[in-house]
Amino acid sequence: MALKTAKEYLDSIKKMKPRVYIGGKWVTNLLENPVTKSMVMANSAIYGLAEDPAHKEVMVGTSHLTGEPVNRNLNVARNIHDLDMRQEMALLTSQTVGTCNYRCVGCDALNSLASTTWEMDQALGTKYNERFNKWLAYAQANDLAVSGAQQDDIDTFVHLVEKRDDGIVVRGIKVSQSGAIGSHETLVLPGGSLKEGEEKFALAFAVQNSVPGLSYICQYNAYSAEREFCDNEDELGNPLYGQRETSTMYFDNVFIPWERVFLCGETKYCGKMVTRFAKAHRMNCGGACKVGFADLIIGGTMMAAEYIGVEKIPHIQEKIIDMVRYSETSHACAIAAAMRGREEPKGSGVFLPDDLFGNAAKLNIAHGFWEIIKNAGDIGGGLVVTAPRLKDLDDPEVGPVLKKAFGAAAPADKRMKVAKFLQHWAAGLHGVGTWHGAGAPQGQRFMFTLLTDFEAKKKLAKKLMGMKDE
Ligand SMILES: Cc1cc2nc3c(=O)[nH]c(=O)nc-3n(C[C@H](O)[C@H](O)[C@H](O)COP(=O)(O)OP(=O)(O)OC[C@H]3O[C@@H](n4cnc5c(N)ncnc54)[C@H](O)[C@@H]3O)c2cc1C
């Protein structure tokens, strides 16, 4: 089986028994808790997209290992078209679920691994690429949901505890792991460049979801509580798929067999591995995914304007156009990053996006997203944060009062439904999520200073001014 259906994914989740802690409780059945269920349902909807012939071009790639069709989330980009379809997948999945494509980080991590393990084998004579390809062929054949993890704090870095004949034992913590709870496997990469002496932190491996010693401590916030305690999920801003679920992964002496270890101690290659992951992720998570969110927000904001009756007023139209300007500029940068992508390293057959345009996509949307949600809040009005429950409209005593209070060009129920949808974005977790996801913007600014040839620009200016080089 090369492509799983949404139902097959759900069936496979029922067989997994991860140790998941959320809001004071341990959960083993992810479909029983309403918050963990929303994450699983988002993943299953993304499996469903690959079943739809209308989305085949975007969602299905061709395995370079077997020539078989594979879900694009497990595809290694081999040309510009693959890169372009990858960023289109980020757009489509966001438009569909209004939350994370929880397979996205894993996809960008496996592209970085394909490139860097190949380079290591060429230079060091290791067998990492061979091992990685075996694992990838298995993941593709079973259409696994794979999440991705970078490492964060030096004190809690996932690190090597013991090397054995059959594998390694690792220990440490990884925070903010999107959808790891409902993924069959997580790819763990190093957190950044490492130097000699830091070999025990230089690790890349694939870990299965429910292995002994691995626990997931889920995020918990007002949106989690609202989902947990509401009696009707239809009332929520994103009824089926929720806000965006991450967890802190705790590796308490977890055993990883050698077949799943793709870097162990080679500090020199950690920086490359992370930079290659980042350039893919900034094009996709930054440039394209958030544009899908923006499409939803713009749609909801236009409905709010129509329901209030202000859709033809010039300043409203101007604000909507600004929202489109921010999002389409980022999408254009993501497309440019794909179109200017290239094989990296030469001979590997792996294509990665252009760094400068990928960073531009992410930095532009990090700033633009705040403007987009500001305009959604502006046009949606105070109701976005002051509305009572939709259900209160049915109360015999307060219902008639609310219908009078919130009815405008459209009845109160329609206005309140849209207000709740906009609340999900404007007063939810996505502003900070967009800012930090794929790296805090200072990282992209730093990349601009590295990637921009300022001397060449000065030369151009001097030439036009008729100034000579000293
Ligand atoms: C919604 C969401 C989902 C995520 N999903 C995943 C995932 O699936 N997998 C994964 O691996 N990660 C994930 N992340 C983590 C994400 O990559 C990090 O949040 C991001 O890289 C920022 O790191 P941080 O959160 O540790 O913030 P910090 O790095 O602590 O940043 C806080 C501030 O400190 C500044 N700062 C930090 N270090 C330096 C420095 N050396 N020099 C100067 N300034 C510095 C930053 O610029 C920023 O202003 C997710 C994050 C979010 C918010």
Give a quick precis of the structure.
This protein is an alpha+beta fold and 470 residues long. The chain has helices at residues 6-15, 34-51, 56-59, 80-97, 104-124, 128-141, 222-229, 270-308, 314-339, 355-380, 383-386, 399-406, 412-426, 430-436, 441-451, 454-465; strands at 19-22, 25-27, 60-62, 69-71, 146-149, 159-163, 167-178, 185-188, 203-208, 214-218, 246-257, 261-264, 342-343, 351-352. Bound molecules: flavin-adenine dinucleotide.
Explain the layout of strands and helices.
Elements lengths: L5 H10 L3 E4 L2 E3 L6 H18 L4 H4 E3 L6 E3 L8 H18 L6 H21 L3 H14 L4 E4 L9 E5 L3 E12 L6 E4 L14 E6 L5 E5 L3 H8 L16 E12 L3 E4 L5 H39 L5 H26 L2 E2 L7 E2 L2 H26 L2 H4 L12 H8 L5 H15 L3 H7 L4 H11 L2 H12 L5
Parallel strand pairs: 1-10, 5-8
Antiparallel strand pairs: 1-2, 3-4, 6-7, 7-11, 8-9, 9-12, 10-11, 13-14
Helix pairs in contact: 1-2, 4-8, 4-9, 5-6, 5-8, 8-9, 8-10, 8-13, 9-10, 10-13, 10-14, 10-15, 12-13
The structure holds flavin-adenine dinucleotide.
